[in-house]
Design a protein that fits this description.
With 75 residues, the chain is α+β, with helices and mostly antiparallel strands. 27% of the residues lie in helices and 37% in strands. It is globular.
């Protein structure tokens, strides 16, 4: 099955997250080892098709450090 979608590709998760915060558009996601920024409609469409999509989130730990965590979209 081939699914076409519009996305912006990034090399690092923190870059994708920063891009979404700076531009106020899209969500940073992990899709089959690809780090992408997608619009919510595209994420919903891919998840509905059964693609394993996970949001990338910057999580502040109790000690003040930050970690990037994934949250499955269609789990």
């Amino acid at each position: 099955m081939t699914i076409k979608f519009k996305a912006i590709d990034f090399q690092a998760a923190h870059e994708a997250i920063q891009w979404t915060e700076a531009n106020g558009k899209g969500r940073a996601v992990l899709l089959d080892r690809l780090i992408l920024v997608l619009e919510q409609g595209e994420i919903d469409r891919l998840a509905a098709a059964g693609m394993p999509v996970a949001y990338l989130c910057d999580h502040e730990m109790p000690d003040g450090t930050h970690r990037i965590v994934t949250v499955p979209v269609n789990d």
